[in-house]
Amino acid sequence: MCLISQYNQIANTLKERIKNGDYVAGQHLPSQKELADEFHTSRVTIQKALDELSNANLILRRQGSGTTVAPNSRSTLDILSSQYEGTTKLFEGRGKVTTKVLKFEIRLPSVHEQKRLSISDSTPVYDILRLRNIDNEPYELDHSIMPLSVIQNLTEKIASGSIYTFIESTLGLKIGSSIRKITADVPRKNDQDYLKCTHNEPILQVSQTVHLSDGRPFEYSQTRHRYDKGGVIVVNNTLSSNGLQI
Amino acid sequence: MCLISQYNQIANTLKERIKNGDYVAGQHLPSQKELADEFHTSRVTIQKALDELSNANLILRRQGSGTTVAPNSRSTLDILSSQYEGTTKLFEGRGKVTTKVLKFEIRLPSVHEQKRLSISDSTPVYDILRLRNIDNEPYELDHSIMPLSVIQNLTEKIASGSIYTFIESTLGLKIGSSIRKITADVPRKNDQDYLKCTHNEPILQVSQTVHLSDGRPFEYSQTRHRYDKGGVIVVNNTLSSNGLQI
DNA sequence: GAGTGGTCTAGACCACGCG
DNA sequence: GCGTGGTCTAGACCACTCG
């Protein structure tokens, strides 16, 4: 969240106004011309700011009739504020999150992992299996593969906290896009052992590849959730495309 | 997909070039100045075109060093081409899609439905239950609620085909954003009956509210998939946020 | 220092919705 | 017809990367 650019600051100001109820759902925003005057800037800059709100589904812009606040703007803001930053941060405040590291190894990657992470067969990877608990109740089983060519100096101690915080704060890397596949599955032995689920309690699996902002893939992971303690919320607009596939 | 604007056309041309391999993964694109010269336009217009490709995770732009084709651009293009357009269109080519309408009613909405669809208790809704098959194998069970105040003249015959095509082509409405929650669940009686799954075969459920481009919600639906025949792929960039929640 | 992308301006014309 | 948002221009300055 850089606050450097003018349009970014304006966008944040406008988001604040929606959050505070200065602009309520259905209400017309001031016209682009009026906003340009208010912020002492040009219309193009206002438009870039409105692009941000529009991409977040916070406003509706209609040629001829103007810009209004989206009907579901408040709930969208709630979802926005819980933006994905790794599991640890996400669940702060919902209970005490603890992580048990079940495996922490360095090895060479399989062919499948090489493909997913765009690495050669001689690039070692971390192989980390972790169990996350909320208030001492098992919640998800996470299996992550990360190449040492991108992520370095990872330790078991760090893995027992937030790897994402380590990557962003300590390594100073920026996290970019991800591709996820979400499926349901029958529980395996590991699930039954660690997530304490019975043989007919389903698992929600999220399999993902995550990239840095420079495009390098840095994590390929499979996270398995208890069906009664997990769900994924997806906001879809004309920019991001989500496909159902067999 | 309007092709009216110049930057849109340029974006499509550039996408074609990536698709055709004229620009390959990792390769530098011509600079913004060069592209502006080639397309006889200004740099700002090129930038708007690049915004589109950037949002789709097809390119990486770095200040100082230039714009390159994303490493996974080809697979991203595959996902893009299967952009969500309702189930019927999505599965064309993967087998013969047939739809059996199990229920087609008009009734008043429940309190929960009123909230989800932003309608009053006196606005009637369609209540439609459908079973989709691919090559005569049951695939998903779809329960849709749509307000008559938005969608009109829907018939059982239309419901046995593609409701989305009807909305866009016949009614001339434009589909906008959606919010989905994806969970795993144990099979209920309906699932066992229609999807032919046993009592310990999990269900993947997608619960969603879909809006028109003017912001009006027009569909609240719950779709239940056989776990071995369904999955949701989500592309996530800095614009769209997806949160995991209990 | 040269070249790249990021931001910003002031002004123009167009497409659309509404009274 | 008027006001709205959408597109586009020509040019400017800045921030960044790299040789």
Automatic annotation (TrEMBL), chains A, B:
This is GntR family transcriptional regulator. The keyword DNA-binding applies. It comes from the Bacteria. InterPro entries: Bact_HTH_transcr_reg, Chorismate_lyase_/UTRA_dom_sf, Tscrpt_reg_HTH_GntR, UTRA, WH-like_DNA-bd_sf, WH_DNA-bd_sf. GO terms for biological process: negative regulation of DNA-templated transcription. Residues 4-72 form the HTH gntR-type domain. It comes from Pediococcus cellicola. SMART domains: HTH_GNTR, UTRA. GO terms for molecular function: DNA binding; DNA-binding transcription factor activity. Keywords: DNA-binding, Repressor, Transcription, Transcription regulation. Signal peptide: none annotated.
